Amino acid sequence: MVDVDIDQLVSQLEAWNAAYRGGAPLVDDATYDRMVETLRELDPQHPFLQGVEPEKFSGRTQVRHPLPMLSIEKAYTGEQLTRFVQRVAKEAQSMGMAEVRYEVTPKLDGLAGRDDGTLLASRGNGLMGYDISSAWDKGVTPVGGRGQGLGEITVVHSYFDQHLAGIFEHPRNMVVGIVSSDTLNAHARQALEAGMVHFVPYSRLPHWEGTGDQLLDRIDQIVQSLAEQTDYPMDGVVVSVCDHALRARMGATTHHYRWQIAVKRKGETAVTIVENIQWQVGRTGNVTPVLEVTPVALSGATIRRVTAHHAGMVEKLGIGPGARIEVIRSGEVIPKLEKVLMPVPQVNLPGQCPSCGSDLTYLNTDDNGKELFLNCSNPACPAQIEQRISHWFRVLGNADWFGIKTIQRLVAAGFDTLEKIYAMNEADFNELGFGPVQSRNLADALMLSRTQTVEDWRFLAALGVPDLGVGDSRKLLQHHRLEALPALDAQTIAAIHGFGAKTSQRIVDGITRIGETLAHLLALGFEMERTPLLSEKTAAHSPIAGKRIVFTGKMQRGSREEMQAEARRLGADVQTAVNRSTDMLVCGDKVGAAKRSKAEALGVTLLSEADYLRLIDGGGQDAT
User: Fold this and answer.
1) pLDDT 10s digits, 213-258
2) Which residues does the annotation say bind NAD(+) (predicted)?
3) What gap in Å lies between CA 170 and CA 221, rounded to an integer?
């Protein structure tokens, strides 16, 4: 009977691990770790416990690590950490060491990897990883440059909370999707283009150093201090022995190094009752639920509101007034719904928009139908108007002072379009009760937004047309001027590489909706840096005009971003990864063999940086 139970337990652990490595965890870390410890108690020699929980990236080349990338032993209690320190002290005494010093660093919750400057490898099974160097071409930023060893691919925590928390359940989900997929969704692409997805070397993390006694006495303060210094998702801290001779003496198991341990907290949880659900309307009309709960103390804060992400979750889990729920708050992590302990027998979803009263419809926001949002299709909805105006100022990025509270006051007073807002002066703001200093700042901000240079693709992306983020806005403006966009039809846009038929129709519909606003803003004379058209003389006479180019490796002439910008000015279509449509792969220093092989297999022209520069400077080979 015990054997059967163990087999079932291992099967469950394997399924949970596969889901986690694939970016779609089925349970929280603490539940998984607790079941691992249960297996360790029943069968400490089980093969599952003797190695690193494996991950797999289909279609990627396997590479061998020069040193094993092992897992980390975990301590959930003060007693477990104390036993680790005592074990280390015993080994140190046998070596004649009087004192042991420890280093504590944040434990990032991302995708572990190793960057040797030539390729980026995932952890894999600890001995063999996968070549995931394509992450660089997709826009992952190496903090501190390339070749800094072990680290983690993750997303800036504050950016994730502000822009993506209602779209991805966890930052790791998005990171795994970026690494494993050849096609990026719009949200991941935006995060990459904003420079918010990083490979963070462990050597670049903030750290604390001290003795074993100091560690045990101050562990909570140490964790809190490191969390405050770290703007990345954390999953505890890592405690490591500093002395390398002692590290060598302690060695490793097949699963973890004995001189290192992760201190994790499940996170304080609390049980509360849902009192009400507030439905919030976003820029695109998606209506999302926020749970108003009976106030409960949690990790030093009083929790009154908890996100439930989307209507489908509310309906599936039976969430409504009277539902008994468990919420969790772990260190720097915002409060979230952990589980529903007692659902309500009937869930009543709103039928009308809470802002404008229009009928709501369901809208699937992913291909699997897992995210079901209620949607308001009324473009005159006040809440949508507020969010669209907020999106404009946030993406344009050159006008401060227009926060959501200010925008809500303007919309409520009838200043509900960009046309009306840009017609305002200091006196208008004063009349609305903003006060002399704020009124002057708001008027100055409007003036600066028109006179400070902004890229035309950023201007277009700020208008909030569906499917036109900054990347696709730039691509569209390589073919058509801003002023010409309202006259385009879907077929014309679909003829541009990278725009599908359905996407093109949504873009046309979106541009039609904002056509008058676009014309009005252009008439105000915004100072813009124009994207060169492929048909312009500078591009038409360029040997790379119309070519689809990927840059990879470390460049000597400038940063990769500078090289990409120059190529765009010369009419090239810059891509982030090699595919069948790519014409040219420009290779800087330390480019992996796998990337070259893929390009060669697809018939892509390979150029060194020197050959490429000779080409664009007029002295090189033909690019066909």
Assistant:
1) 999 999 988 988 888 888 888 888 999 999 988 988 888 776 788 8
2) 29-33, 71-72, 123, 152, 264
3) 26
Q: Kindly list the domain boundaries of the chain, sorted by start residue.
A: 1-50, 60-263, 268-376, 382-452, 455-529, 538-616
Distance (Å, whole) CA 260 – CA 244: 12
605 a known binding residue?
A: no
In contact, 525 and 450? CB cutoff 8 Å: yes
242 marked ligand binding residue: no
Q: Is 359 annotated as a binding residue?
A: no
Q: How many CB atoms lie under 10 A from the CB of residue 590?
A: 15
- Relative to beta strand 234-241, strand 256-263 is antiparallel
DSSP 191-245: HHHTT-EEEEEGGGS--EEEEHHHHHHHHHHHHHHHHHH--S-EEEEEEEE--HH
High-pLDDT (> 90) share of the chain, %: 36
Residue 264 is labelled as binding a ligand: yes
Superfamily of structural domain 455-529: 5' to 3' exonuclease, C-terminal subdomain (1.10.150.20)
Greatest alpha-carbon pair distance for the chain in Å reads 82
**Which class would CATH give 268-376?**
mainly beta
Q: Which two tokens stand for residue 301?
A: 């804060």
Q: At what angle do helices 171-180 and 186-193 cross, to 10 degrees?
A: 90
For the question of residue 107 being annotated catalytic, the response is yes
CA angle 190, 191, 192 (to 5 degrees): 90
In sequence order, what E strands does 227-359 have? 234-241, 256-263, 268-281, 286-298, 301-307, 324-329, 336-342
Mean pLDDT score, 390-402: 84
Q: Please indicate if the annotation marks 303 as binding a ligand.
A: no
Averaged confidence pLDDT in the chain? 83
Q: What's the fold here for domain 382-452?
A: DNA polymerase; domain 1 (1.10.150)
Backbone dihedral angles phi then psi of residue 328, each to the nearest 5 degrees: -130, 145
Q: How far apart are the first and last CA of the chain?
A: 68
Distance, in Å, from the CA atom of 45 to the CA atom of 255, rounded to the nearest integer, reads 12
Whether residue 502 is annotated as binding a ligand: the answer is: no
Q: Which of 74, 90, 107, 547 is catalytic?
A: 107
The CATH fold assigned to 60-263 is D-amino Acid Aminotransferase; Chain A, domain 1 (3.30.470)
